[in-house]
Amino acid sequence: AQTVTQSQPEMSVQEAETVTLSCTYDTSENNYYLFWYKQPPSRQMILVIRQEAYKQQNATENRFSVNFQKAAKSFSLKISDSQLGDTAMYFCAFMKYSSNTGKLIFGQGTTLQVKP
Amino acid sequence: DADVTQTPRNRITKTGKRIMLECSQTKGHDRMYWYRQDPGLGLRLIYYSFDVKDINKGEISDGYSVSRQAQAKFSLSLESAIPNQTALYFCATGGGVTDTQYFGPGTRLTVL
């Protein structure tokens, strides 16, 4: 069975600084997808970034980028130039490529506070 | 307008009551999902549906049932609510099996 672990329950960063959120996962699959979702105080789950395991290039979306280390089963999220609106809970999630359910397996979440 | 909507946004009910949470989507997706979020546990899959005639149990389906009334509508019912069903419930949709899932705004359910 696949598991996703986020070992940092809470983090904080000063506005305009850079922060990295950690995520590790356990799987015997070779092909899969990884995601980072953001949940601000509004509760809405918002997709931040998606990575296909077969792609060696790390995904980027504006100020958000990932460091995907397949051999180490690590998928960290880097937020550059942090903004107050980045304050949220961040969830790492895994999906098997061969999934016939589309089931997402989530980590426990990391609460990020951006301080002015 | 939001692509995935959920009603109600918040609900407080008593033990033993029947509760229905509703989800509607305008994305035209075939696949719909119900997840439950608990502190420290992330989100866990309750039920999922590939089309109107296809309903499947997720990892924590006990105590829940669902109905797919149309491609765009997927409801979650608690036949007899209990306090440990107090949680945040999310509906999500996806266009294909491994497509990105889009979430609704969530329903905060409290069972007293």
Description:
- The complex is a heterodimer of chains A (116) and B (112).
- Chain A is mainly beta and 116 residues long.
- Chain A is 0% helix and 52% strand.
- Chain A has strands at residues 3-5, 10-14, 19-21, 24-26, 32-39, 46-52, 60-61, 64-69, 74-79, 88-96, 105-106, 110-115.
- In chain A, strands 2, 5, 6, 10, 11 and 12 form a six-stranded mixed β-sheet that branches. In chain A, strands 3-9-8-7 form a four-stranded antiparallel β-sheet, with no helix packed on it. Chain A has a two-stranded antiparallel ribbon with strand order 1-4.
- Chain A is globular.
- The mean pLDDT of chain A is 93.
- Chain B has 112 residues and is mainly beta.
- Chain B has strands at residues 4-7, 10-13, 19-25, 31-38, 42-51, 54-57, 65-70, 73-78, 87-94, 101-103, 107-111.
- In chain B, the strands form two sheets. In chain B, strands 2, 4, 5, 6, 9, 10 and 11 form a seven-stranded mixed β-sheet that branches. In chain B, strands 1-3-8-7 form a four-stranded antiparallel β-sheet, with no helix packed on it.
- The radius of gyration of chain B is 13 Å and the shape is globular.
- The termini of chain B are far apart.
- At the A-B interface, strand 5, strand 6 and strand 10 of A face strand 4, strand 5, strand 9 and strand 10 of B.
